[in-house]
Amino acid sequence: MQNNKLTQTDAEGRTTHWSYDNLGRVTSRTLPMGQFETFEYDVSGNRIAHTDFKGQRTDTEYDINNRPILQTIAGTITKSWTYDAVGQVLSADQDG
């Protein structure tokens, strides 16, 4: 069993909850007032999706070296990266 934090209660009695997958990665966090965020991962452990407390989803794609190459935020803003042969960022662009 992993020692992941499941809950945290502040001095005013408000509790935040966390959920994890079988590899110990956070899959959700719920705040005391019910707001929640979720996380999804690929088989390499890269975070491929995050839905924030406002319901805005960010999707990220990675290359075979686990470097981010494309990120789409709320379906409208797109960020992209290219890399050279040694893994240094050649370009970083944003649309939207």
From TrEMBL:
InterPro entries: RHS_repeat, YD. NCBIfam families: YD_repeat_2x. It comes from the Bacteria. Transmembrane segments: none annotated. This is RHS repeat protein. Coiled coil: none annotated. Signal peptide: none annotated.
